[in-house]
């Protein structure tokens, strides 16, 4: 079987979910039809993304000029190994989470779960993510972020409870600030270079004075750092994500912050490869790791605890980027893929814990290993993976980053190696604490074990002490359609470990492409574009 041309497949990761969103919106009164269309769109998107990864790894970077307008004037969509990897991992996660959401029993006709809006919005979110990964110009990247913002606000406030609306407003305010800063960065970049096309901008930025170039990069880093939750721009995240429904929290925590990380990788390697702010990135990476994991230690709710570990492990990715080496970039890309899968899995497991025990608070949980051995295993595997226990992919990714840091000729990189090691040990302590309290100890030993079976909806009008076990009909029940997608993600995480050698080979080739800017520039502008990137673009 011959695969279609890569230019034919390139727009499909954006077009498929966007068209499906329109279809599901029209079919809002037919929930089964909506779910079928959504699942079909995500399956097709995953197949197309896998094909794009295969073709990009085999043939190299490909650029599509949308609408017949040649670059740098028109909209350019670019597929390289990095963007293709991000698409594949994203679609795997989005498909699994959608299966979990369907299994959670979301249906039309309820006041708090308007699924007729959920599914089209979820597909729009998918299209925005895909557009951000394929964008070949700054403004199209901005459009992808704005589609994410609009869709994520709807998903975050789904159910319209006071806590969700409050968290949604906070999230939107932070995201709007980030978007405004991004717009300022776009204006500065266009004013300095006269273009928004990333390839052409990369060439022209070489002729810009160093101070001006660093200032533009600084503005864009702030915008992307907010979206990626890099310290000190990460304080909004632990308060925004835990209030959302479990599937929404899983997608946001696992995936959305990585769109910001992707933008940092792309800007750092293509537009600003001279390393002016590498030391700043290293310090931010170190503080993100340490402050995030210290915050996780202080939490008694598993959702908030995982939100802080999410922030902490963003620091590993920033560490790899800041090294400005092929080894560091390869490790960062592998770690991004690993973390998307593992973090999403753990948040889905928390949804299962709430179904099984009625709470996600460590003060109320206990005895889950005896009550549900399957749930215990489903938690333990990704938890050990997150903690970096060998031979899991978390260990492999951290070792790759620590080796890259040890090979870097700076004292600061060694400080980061030490910080990364300590953070890994503290992460293991955090997940072991969750295991000990939620799964291993007897529930009767939990300080508030008698309050675990509380219906969140009942808390709107009643105090916790008035809620009995019988008020929560779903406690102790884990629908198979919730459990199966979670187990599937656990299996994908294990597959990432089993095939780590082949995957790292791909990330190594992706890092080579990123370090040699001429490959990207020639693919977008053509080999006869008449401009040549300076030596700063490649051999650092």
Question: What is this structure, in a nutshell?
Answer:
Helices cover 70% and strands 1% of the residues. It has 21 helices and two strands.
Helical content stands at over 70%
**Low-pLDDT residue intervals, each spanning 5 or more residues:** 107-113, 453-474, 533-540
- Taking the alpha carbons of the first and last residues, their distance comes to 41 Å
Share of β-strand residues: under 5%
Number of domains: 1
Number of helices: 21
What does the average pLDDT come to?
84
Element order, helices and strands? HHHEEHHHHHHHHHHHHHHHHHH
The 3D shape can be described as globular
- Structural class comes to mainly alpha
The strand count comes to 2
Task: Profile the largest sheet.
Answer: 2 strands, antiparallel
Radius of gyration: 23 Å
List the helices and strands and how they pair.
Layout: H1 6-9, H2 12-26, H3 31-59, E1 62-65, E2 76-79, H4 81-103, H5 115-134, H6 138-156, H7 162-193, H8 198-205, H9 210-228, H10 237-240, H11 246-271, H12 278-297, H13 302-322, H14 326-357, H15 368-371, H16 373-387, H17 393-407, H18 411-440, H19 480-498, H20 500-515, H21 517-525
Antiparallel strand pairs: 1-2
Helix pairs in contact: 2-3, 2-5, 3-4, 3-5, 4-5, 4-11, 4-14, 4-19, 5-6, 6-7, 6-11, 7-9, 8-21, 9-11, 11-13, 11-14, 12-13, 12-18, 13-14, 13-18, 14-16, 14-17, 14-19, 14-20, 16-18, 16-19, 17-18
Keywords:
disordered C terminus; 1% strand; 540 residues; mainly alpha; transmembrane helix; single chain; CPA3_Na-H_Antiporter_D; ND/Mrp_TM; Na+/H+ antiporter subunit D; transmembrane
């Amino acid at each position: 079987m011959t695969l279609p041309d890569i230019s034919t497949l390139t727009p499909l990761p954006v077009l498929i979910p966007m068209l499906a969103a329109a279809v599901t919106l029209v079919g809002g009164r037919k929930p089964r039809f909506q779910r079928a269309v959504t699942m079909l769109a995500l399956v097709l998107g995953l197949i197309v993304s896998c094909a794009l990864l295969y073709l990009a790894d085999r043939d190299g970077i490909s650029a599509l000029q949308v609408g017949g307008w040649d670059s740098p004037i028109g909209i350019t969509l670019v597929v390289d190994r990095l963007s293709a990897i991000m698409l594949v991992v994203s679609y795997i996660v989005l498909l699994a989470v959608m299966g979990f959401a369907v299994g959670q029993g979301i249906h039309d006709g309820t006041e708090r779960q308007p699924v007729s809006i959920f599914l089209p919005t979820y597909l729009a979110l998918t299209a925005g993510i895909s557009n951000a990964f394929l964008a070949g110009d700054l403004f199209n990247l901005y459009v992808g972020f704005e589609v994410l913002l609009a869709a994520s606000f709807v998903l975050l406030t789904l159910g319209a409870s006071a806590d969700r609306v409050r968290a949604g407003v906070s999230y939107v305010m932070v995201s709007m600030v980030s978007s405004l800063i991004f717009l300022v960065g776009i204006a500065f970049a266009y004013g300095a270079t006269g273009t928004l096309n990333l390839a052409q901008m990369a060439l022209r930025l070489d002729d810009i004075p160093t101070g001006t170039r660093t200032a533009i990069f600084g503005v864009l880093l702030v915008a992307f750092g907010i979206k990626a939750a890099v310290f000190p721009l990460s304080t909004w995240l632990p308060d925004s994500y835990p209030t959302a429904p479990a599937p929404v929290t899983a997608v946001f925590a696992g995936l959305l912050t990585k769109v910001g990380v992707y933008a940092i990788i792309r800007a750092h390697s293509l537009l600003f490869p001279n390393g002016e702010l590498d030391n700043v990135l290293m310090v931010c990476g170190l503080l993100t790791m340490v402050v995030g994991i210290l915050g996780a230690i202080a939490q008694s709710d598993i959702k908030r605890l995982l939100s802080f570990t999410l922030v902490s492990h963003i620091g590993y990715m920033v560490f790899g980027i800041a090294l400005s080496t092929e080894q560091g970039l390869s490790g960062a890309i592998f770690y991004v893929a690993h973390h998307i899968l593992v973090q999403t899995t753990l948040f889905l497991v928390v949804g299962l814990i709430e179904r099984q025990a009625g709470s996600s608070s460590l003060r109320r949980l206990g005895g889950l290993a005896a009550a549900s051995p399957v749930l215990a295993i489903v938690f333990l595997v990704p938890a050990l993976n997150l903690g970096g226990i060998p031979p899991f992919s978390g260990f492999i990714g951290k070792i790759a980053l620590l080796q890259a840091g040890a090979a870097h000729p700076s004292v600061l990189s060694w400080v980061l190696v030490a910080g990364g090691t300590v953070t890994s040990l503290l992460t293991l302590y955090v997940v072991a604490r969750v295991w000990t309290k939620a799964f291993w100890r007897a529930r009767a030993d939990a300080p508030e074990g008698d309050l675990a079976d509380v219906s969140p909806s009942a808390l709107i009008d009643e105090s916790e002490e008035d809620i009995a076990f019988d008020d929560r009909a779903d406690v102790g029940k884990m629908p198979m359609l919730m459990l199966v997608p979670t187990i599937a993600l656990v299996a994908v995480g294990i597959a990432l470990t089993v095939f780590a050698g082949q995957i790292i080979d791909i990330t190594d080739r992706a890092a080579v492409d990123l370090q040699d800017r001429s490959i990207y520039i020639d693919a977008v502008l053509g080999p006869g574009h008449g401009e040549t990137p300076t030596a700063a673009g490649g051999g650092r």
